[in-house]
What does this fold into?
Amino acid sequence: MTNHTGLIKRSQIYYGEKVDFHYDNITGFKLTDSIAYLDMNIYALDVKGDTVMSKENLFNDLKEEFKESKLDLFNSVTFADPFLPGKTYSIHVEIIDKKSDAFYHWNKSFTIINHPRFLNDVNGIKYDILYLYSGDRDISIIDNLIMPFEQVYFIVEGLEGFVQDENGMVSIECSVTIADSNNEVLMTNPNMIPNPVEAKELKKQIFGSITVDDQVKINPINCSIAIKDRWSDKYLKSQFNLVVNKE
It folds into this structure.
């Protein structure tokens, strides 16, 4: 198993993490003109045995020919929706020989966890998931390393508990501040959501973006996010560090 940082052996996976599963030197297929004809199915089960994800016939539309002499396969799973933090799932992979009844089955259990590097202060509200996502790399950021000018999103899902008006609207203040290790402010946005929003939309997802240039002098940088209820004293505050890779 690998992710963008390299080889991984753990069974705890961060929410939003993309994991590649590798199957090297696979043999035993019935060959036609030295070509193997195969397919792959992937599915995930929760602890009750219910299917939460299913991807079948992944090789159906591939035009690539599989020669058994160099048959190395891989597939990827992104552990985001429908997966949930705090839950355990088993991933099952089936590699099927289309020319015979031969098959290979692999499975492994994983527990999904929230990112451990957030320092959160919560008063009166609830949330399910808080994570960082790179729009440029299309991955969840789990190592806190970013590049200059990279578009980074902080995403909160399942946010609820704010005071609602008679129309189901809430009024929140969402702010972000980024400072370097000398407390020099690099970026600030004090009012990212100026207008009231529907509570049900807020529960689905709220996100904001941060970008840092290549002039950061001292790592790490500190990011502070505050989501406050304008109609009460309820809030969510979160802090985390990022390291800007200058190489």
In short: Helices lie at 199-204.
